[in-house]
């Protein structure tokens, strides 16, 4: 089963997608609450646009996947994740929500709406009925392990560059600067997920080329081929 390219891409995509997402939530929450002093309610409202987009698109995404296929939708979603996390690197000590934070949340919501269901479909597509449960369990394992491992790596990176904030002696700017390496890491994980799934597009194009080349319509008759050679000569 793990020899299947789409299956491998789905599992690795789940690791990078959820690991980056959980880590981003952690960093954004720390930034909004610990550094800017926002309340829990204000922080939840800051994330609300992403959740609203996912909820509103839940009944529409199946049609998008049917039209474009899982690979294209996943690639698009990961590209939006990279943009979302990259835009969040603009944060400072006096951010404007609409200009700085909201764009990341909107892109994050669209990306989650595209990637998560597509990964599930790609992982279970073409799998025998008696193996559906195993594949679903494997995907959920990839999600949970990815979330735990990448979050641990991200927090370690932030802690290593916190500039003494553990002792309470770091300035707000130093604390903010300690978040940036974590955000860069999260962005790189999203980029890794994008590159992994881009290989699926290349494989699909190669497969389509082979199918077209082998089809009777694509193969010229001996007579037509001879005629073209004669004309060329």
From TrEMBL:
<feature type="transmembrane region" description="Helical">
    <location>
        <begin position="72"/>
        <end position="91"/>
    </location>
</feature>
<keyword id="KW-0472">Membrane</keyword>
<feature type="transmembrane region" description="Helical">
    <location>
        <begin position="178"/>
        <end position="198"/>
    </location>
</feature>
<feature type="transmembrane region" description="Helical">
    <location>
        <begin position="137"/>
        <end position="158"/>
    </location>
</feature>
<protein>
    <submittedName>
        <fullName>MFS transporter</fullName>
    </submittedName>
</protein>
<keyword id="KW-0812">Transmembrane</keyword>
<dbReference type="InterPro" id="IPR036259">
    <property type="entry name" value="MFS_trans_sf"/>
</dbReference>
<keyword id="KW-1003">Cell membrane</keyword>
<feature type="transmembrane region" description="Helical">
    <location>
        <begin position="97"/>
        <end position="116"/>
    </location>
</feature>
<dbReference type="GO" id="GO:0046677">
    <property type="term" value="P:response to antibiotic"/>
</dbReference>
<keyword id="KW-0046">Antibiotic resistance</keyword>
<dbReference type="InterPro" id="IPR011701">
    <property type="entry name" value="MFS"/>
</dbReference>
<keyword id="KW-0813">Transport</keyword>
<dbReference type="Pfam" id="PF07690">
    <property type="entry name" value="MFS_1"/>
</dbReference>
<dbReference type="GO" id="GO:0005886">
    <property type="term" value="C:plasma membrane"/>
</dbReference>
<dbReference type="GO" id="GO:0022857">
    <property type="term" value="F:transmembrane transporter activity"/>
</dbReference>
<keyword id="KW-1133">Transmembrane helix</keyword>
<feature type="transmembrane region" description="Helical">
    <location>
        <begin position="44"/>
        <end position="65"/>
    </location>
</feature>
<feature type="transmembrane region" description="Helical">
    <location>
        <begin position="12"/>
        <end position="32"/>
    </location>
</feature>
């Amino acid at each position: 089963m793990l020899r299947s390219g789409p299956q491998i891409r789905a599992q690795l995509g789940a690791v990078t997608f959820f690991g980056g997402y959980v880590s981003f939530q952690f960093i954004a929450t720390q930034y909004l609450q610990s550094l800017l002093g926002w309340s829990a309610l204000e922080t939840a409202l800051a994330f609300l646009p992403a959740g609203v987009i996912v909820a509103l698109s839940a009944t529409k995404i199946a049609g998008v996947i049917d039209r474009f296929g899982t690979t294209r939708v996943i690639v698009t979603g990961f590209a939006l994740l990279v943009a979302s996390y990259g835009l969040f690197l603009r944060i400072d000590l006096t951010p404007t929500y609409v200009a700085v934070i909201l764009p990341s949340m909107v892109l994050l919501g669209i990306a989650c709406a595209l990637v998560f269901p597509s990964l599930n479909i790609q992982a279970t597509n073409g799998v025998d009925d008696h193996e559906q449960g195993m594949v679903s369990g494997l995907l959920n394992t990839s999600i949970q392990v990815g979330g735990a491992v990448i979050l641990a790596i991200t927090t370690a990176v932030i802690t290593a560059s916190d500039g003494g904030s553990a002792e309470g002696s770091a300035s707000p700017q130093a604390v903010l600067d300690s978040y940036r390496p974590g955000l860069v890491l999260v962005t790189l994980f999203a980029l890794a997920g994008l590159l992994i799934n881009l290989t699926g597009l290349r494989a699909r194009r190669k497969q389509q080329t082979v199918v077209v080349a082998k089809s009777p319509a694509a193969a010229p008759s001996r007579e037509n081929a001879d005629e073209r050679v004669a004309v060329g000569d």
